[in-house]
Each structure stands twice: as structure tokens, then as C-alpha cells.
Amino acid sequence: MRSAERRPETQHVPDAPWLDFFPLSKITLSDMDLRFRCLILDHDDTAVNSTAMIHHPSHLESMRVLRPQAPPIDLQGWFLKNFDPGIMQYLSGELGLTEKELAVEYKIWRKFNTGILPRFFPGFLETLRNFRKRGGIITVVSHSEEDVILKAYQAASENDGLLPDLVFGWDYEESRRKPSPWPVLEILRRFNLSAEQALIVDDLKPGVLMSRATGVPIAAACWAHQIPQIRAYMLENCNTYFDSVGEFSSYVLS
Questions:
Q1: What is the Cα–Cα distance from 157 to 138, expressed in whole angstroms?
Q2: What pLDDT score does 29 carry?
């Protein structure tokens, strides 16, 4: 999870250069019956269970190397730091990691990311398959890197080749990286969409910040963790929320 105020009515529901050659005409459907034409998905702890499997263990290893005397942060504390103040602010601000130490931290994080395949939440890929069959566009905006995201999809869907249509990850410069609105605006531009035709799905604050800056509605993915501070914020600031992948699936496919 690398790293006008609006109060939406909350509902509870029981640069990728290859894109220049993508045949947009094939996905511009006038009679599509989906609620949204495009999903803008977070990856970590929305699509895959990766913080518990990868990001938190990699941080503990980094601290063992860089700050061996510091008390380790537990999984809930790590989620909270990713939520606020954000991963880079925590590493460089609170922990005071130098540029050299951040490079070491990144190397360890990258090793964990490329060496462990996270598991998709049950039902998530099936929801995306059904969404695409009905003409939907699948995109990802994440703090993970593009190759890591694509590797996870490729490994989990090798028989049918289910891959996102577009991915914006940690690879981009900071001004174009989540929570910057640039990835969302670029998705809208490239697929010729209005803000109302897309839905951001995220488990943390960066997704909310992108939603506020772009006008794209946001749904809270509450199935990965139930941390009270995070949940309260997401329920207050998202247009809708889901406690399970099943609720998410029913909503976007209805």
C-alpha cells in the first residue's frame, strides 16, 4: 500500500503506451446495461489480501535492518499508518528514514512484492469477468507497481487472460501517483468517460481524495479489515460501501 468538502449520502448495499493502439471503438457500447461503464480499482486489500501477506512483513524486515531497536508495529498499526499520514510520510517523517535508507526499504519491499503472489479475495475475479463480459472497462490505480499488479492477475487468471485494461501504479512520478487526481482524469480521458460513468473502489483515504478531486463516485471496500477509525472515515466520506465482495458484485452487476 504505497503509500469543496462533500458529504455524500451513504448507502449500504446488503503512462501505458500500448493503450494508444487499444481499439476503443470496441468498448464504446451505447446499450450497455451496467450501473457504471468503468471500475477504477485499488489493488492492495481491495483486490488482493496483500498487506497481511506482503507489505507488513516487508516493513518488519526493513525495520529489523534499519531500526533494530525500534518496537515493531503490528498489522493494525501498519494499516493505520497507511491510512494516515500515508506510507511515505510515515517512513520519511515519523521514522526519519534518509534517502539512502529509503532505497534500502524499497529494495526489501520490492523483493517481497516480486517473490510472493498475493491471493485475490474470493469472488473478486469472477465479478470482474462478469463485468467485462457485459462490456465494462477494468482499470487499476494503486501504490503497487504495474508489473506486480499484472503478475498477480496473470497468475490468477492464466486460463482466460483476465487483465486490467489500464494500470497506474507506483511507477509514475509522485505528481501523477495516487492520491493525485491525474490517474483518474487520464482514465476518463482515454476511455471518453464522464465522471458519473466510473466508480472508484478503495479501502483507504487516497481513494477518497481522488474522488473528491475528480467528481468520480467512490465505494468503500470494507472486506479486508475492520479497523474502527478507517471504517468510520470511509463510511462518512464514500458514496456507498460494501462489507463483502458479494455486496460489491451485486451492486456493480445490477
A1: 14
A2: 43
Task: Look up the CATH number of domain 11-49+120-253.
Answer: 3.40.50.1000
Q: Residue 197 corresponds to which amino acid?
A: Q
Q: Give, in order, the Cα–Cα distances in Å from 90 to each of 83, 113, 172, 210.
A: 10, 20, 20, 20
pLDDT value of residue 2: 41
Global pTM?
0.85
Complete DSSP assignment for 184-206: HHHHHHHTT--GGGEEEEESSHH
Is pLDDT of 130 > 70? yes
| Domain range summary for the chain, segments of one domain joined by + | 11-49+120-253, 51-115
H-run or E-run covering 234: helix 228-237
Extract the runs of DSSP E, i.e. beta strands, from 152-195. 166-168
Pairing of strands 198-202, 137-141: unpaired
